[in-house]
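Friendly challenge for the regulars: who can give me the structure tokens for this chain first? No prize, just bragging rights.
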Amino acid sequence: MDTDRYDPVPHTKEDTARWMADPEFKAAYDALEEEYSAISAFLDARKAAGLTQDEIASRMGTTKSAISRLESSLGSGKMSPSLATLRRYAAAVGCRLELKLLPR
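First reply, four minutes later:
Bragging rights claimed.
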């Protein structure tokens, strides 16, 4: 099994609708919106570039495990990657990093 390719867990629109009908689930999900968005952006960029974690690591001069930790940390709150690291990741997948502050 190729474990370093983005492979989301499949679920149907009906599954999502059922889960979102639960107020506690919806509140928890909504609270993680920024994290989900960040994770998706990075994983989607890697997928669009057709690169594995090993290839990203090579381009960044680091290890696959460091890339795995970086990708998983975006939603975990366990680690806060530096802006420089995020820029290097973006460059490795052929992108540029853009941060925005948006009014709520």
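Helices lie at 13-20, 23-31, 33-49, 53-60, 64-76, 83-92. The mean pLDDT is 87. Your move, everyone else.
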